[in-house]
Each structure stands twice: as structure tokens, then as C-alpha cells.
Amino acid sequence: MNILIIGTGYVGITMILAFAEMGNRVTGYDTDREKVNRLNMGLLPIHEPELKETLSKHLQHNRIVFSADAEKSIQHNDVIFICVGTPARADGGANLRYIKLAAEQIGRYINGYKLVVIKSTAPVGTQQKMVRWISLAQIHYNNVLHPFDVSSNPEFLREGNALADALNPDRVIIGSTSKRATDILKTIYNKAACPVFITRPKEAELIKYASNAFLATKISFINELSRLCDKMGVDVREVASGMGMDKRIGSLFLKAGIGYGGSCFPKDVSALLWEASNQQISLSILEKVAEINRSQPIYLMARLKERLGGFSNRIIAVLGVSFKPDTDDIRESPAIGIIQKLLAEKAVVRVHDPVARVPAQLFDYGVEECVSPRLAAKDADAIVICTDWPQYSKLNWPQMKKIMKFPCILDGRNMLSAKTMRRIGFDYMGVGSR
Ligand code: UGA
Questions:
Q1: Distance 43 CA to ligand 1 centre (A)
Q2: Which protein residue has the closest C-alpha to ligand 1 atom 25?
Q3: pTM of the model
């Protein structure tokens, strides 16, 4: 099948590769010509396992092409996936500007039946809006009106695991009332060995928000519980392991830490809260989820400050800037808030991350970026682990301790063994761990 993907961000690039892996010929459209040229040369704008090798394989076999030509891209493909961003507006709602732009282009260049599939995370009612926007553009630009369907097909891939998740999903959600559209989507996904759940577009749209909001709720639940564990000398990791053995609860997304970040959970929780207040409904659990997530790094920094007797002139080594491992994405990363807090309290902040970069504006406040954890930790008063990059667990910790001024460590991801670290001589602080 010939498939067009509009938008070459995380989801767009991953889906281009996943659909090519499933045997389709895929065009990736983006308005950014420079990005398109680079992608055609096999150069990716993101750090993500497996993508580079898969892209060069499909470019070589002409199964993938990138284009900045909207007219040709739309006219040569009958199935169009919308993978553009839906960033948060200042009021927390989702900004549908890019979705609307894509709809207008489809309506303008449509030359026969098109199946338009919304993969971007978009609020309930977006599918209906898309139908209206495409129709209005068709009426404006064309004499002949062509048939089209718009379906919702949310994506559940995780950064750092994107291609594997896209190729082996737990489920495929299709929000559609058209048999023609549903049949095409079922054919596209017939290689994904998972249940296909067909529902109306509105339900599909809410399934995406509700899933992310529920996962965020699990994280905030365990993070808040970790504060009680700290007080009572209980290890939250043990508690989570025991809880997770109950199939009704499940062990995933119960890792206590510095809070969730990324381009999805914070934005989607806000968008759902915005929608609820718009409907005069209170989603009080979700309000708390967001509040706990905001206060978790503050709570942990207060513990560290108490331990060090203040941050002023203390050298703090921050390990990890990305919002999770295996990505260079720093959007809404709790590490950034932690670095800002330390700088505001006049600490000397040294940062290491294997791939992510510190935002440029933080250099004006004196952040030092280090090429190794060792350089960051030299003469430091404390280490704060913000991202659970696997290489941090393999560091030579006895040596790290030797080069530090004071061997204090706040393991914000509970990735190290408290027992081992204390045996080495660290003043170890975990998140709700003994
Ligand atoms: C999330 C969802 O997991 C995907 O299913 C969804 O498709 C995606 O959002 C999206 O909407 O596009 P992602 O944001 O890439 O994926 O990353 P996650 O693995 O979900 O992690 C999000 C944050 O939660 C990270 O900061 C991570 O460190 C944190 N987290 C995760 C915890 O603090 N504890 C956990 O137990 C799990």
C-alpha cells in the first residue's frame, strides 16, 4: 500500500519506518525542506534506538521517500496519516493549528478517495473538526468534490522504545464509523499480532488521553507513597514489587522517582483537565496527579538541601538531563527544574548526559556541561541522578566516591542498590527507599 505520513516528529518518523517494515511504500511529508533533505540522506533529527539502521535500509530499497511537496505527496497516496504535533496552549488545552493546516492541504489537493487517519494525540471531537476542515477546503479550492473518510487511530509508542512499540503494540485502536476506512486500516495492521479494537472516533480519541492519564496516575501514586515510605523507613521498591504481582495492579509504571516528564504525560494530563473544566466536570484525581508531579522534585531537593545544610557554593553533579533514558528529548524533563532550582540557590552545577544537551539559556546561569560523569563528580558535594541511563549503574562507584569532596548521592530514579552504595561509603538517598 502507498501511505503518506504528514509530520516527521517522533511519532511520524517511527510510523514511516514501522509501515515500511510492514511492507508498504511510505512518503514522509514535512514543511521543513532542510529536515526533508537531511532525512532523505538518512540523517535523523532524534536519538532513538534502531531508527537510523532501519531508515538507511528502506531508503536504499526506495521504500521510503521524504518530501516537502504537499500537492504531489497527497495526490500520490490514498492513505494519509496525520502525525503532526498538538502542543499545549497557554491555558492547558491542545493546540490544533498543525492538524488544521494538514486538513486544509488535503482538502486543497485531494484528487480522489482519501482515507485520512489521525495519529496525533488530539482531543475528543478532532475527527469531526477534521471532516469539516477538509470539506471547507475542498469547496474553496475544487470544482469536483471527492469522497474521503477521517478515522482516529491513536499511537501508544514510548520514546526510547518507539520502533519496537510501533511494530508490536498491545492493541490497535481504530475510531471509525466507515466500513471502507476500517477495512483499509485492518489490512494495514494485519501484520501487528495484537487485538484490533474498533470503536467510534470520539471513544478512540478519549482512549488515548485516558491511557496516558492513567499511567501518569500510577506514577504519581507511587511517588506520593514514597514520601510516606521515607518517613516510615519502608522501601517503596519492595512495596511496588509486591503490589505489582497482583495482575489487577500490574508491576509497570510503579517506579518511584523525580516525576514524569516528556512531551506526552504532562501535556495530555493538562489537556484532559482543560477539557473537563470546559465541560464543568472536576477530574480531582488528575488534578492531584499533576500537583504531585510538580512537587516531587521540590520534595526531593528539600531533602538533599537539608542533608547538605544548604546549596550555596556547593558543587552538585547532575547525572542525566533527558526525561528518560535512550532519548535526547528534554521536553518537560524534571531534570531541568532540578538544575534551575540548584542554580537559583547558588549551587555550582555540573551536568552530564550521554546524549541530551542542557538548554542553551542555562549556560548563561553558569551550568557546566561535562563529557563524563567522572568530570562532573570531581570535588562535588553531591551527585543527583535524574535519568536512569543504564551506564550510570555500571559506573565505578568506589572511584567516583574517592574523587568527590563529600560522598552524598540522591538517586532520583532508585536505580542503584542502597546497600552497595552505603557499603562503598556513600551517604545514599533514594526515593522512598531505606
Ligand atoms: C508515553 C506513553 O507511555 C506511551 O504509551 C504514549 O504513546 C506516549 O506517552 C505518547 O503519548 O506519545 P513516553 O512519554 O515516551 O510515552 O515515555 P514513558 O515511558 O511513558 O515515560 C514517561 C515519563 O514517566 C518519563 O519521565 C519516565 O521516567 C516516567 N516514569 C515512567 C516514571 O517516573 N516511573 C515509571 O514507573 C514509568
A1: 25
A2: 260
A3: 0.96
Structural contact between residues 387 and 323, judged by C-beta atoms closer than 8 angstroms: yes
- Among 400, 289, 389, 384, CA closest to 340: 384
Any atom of ligand 1 within 6 Å of the Cβ of 323: yes
Determine contact, residues 159/326, Cβ cutoff 8 Å: yes
pLDDT digits (tens, 9 = 90+) for 119-144: 999 999 999 999 999 999 999 998 88
Average pLDDT over residues 197-208: 98
Question: What is the Cα–Cα distance from 240 to 316, expressed in whole angstroms?
Answer: 30
Phi, psi of 66 (to 5 degrees): -110, 145
Question: In the block, which residue shows the cell 496525533?
Answer: 120
| CB-facing half-sphere around the CA of 265: CA atoms within 13 A | 26
Residue 27 contacts residue 4 (beta carbons within 8 Å): yes
Atom of ligand 1 lying closest to residue 10 CA: 12
Q: Is the CB of 121 under 6 A from ligand 1?
A: yes
Residue 415, ligand 1, Cβ within 6 A? no
* Amino acid identity at 142: N
Task: From 407, 174, 176, 159, select the one nearest 307 (Cα to Cα).
Answer: 407
Nearest atom in ligand 1 to 154's CA: 7
Residue 269 Cβ contacting ligand 1 at under 6 Å:
no
Q: Which three cell numbers stand for residue 69?
A: 511537496
The pLDDT value recorded for residue 410 is 98
Positions annotated as catalytic residues are: 264
User: If you take atom 29 of ligand 1, which residue's CA is the nearest one?
Assistant: 260
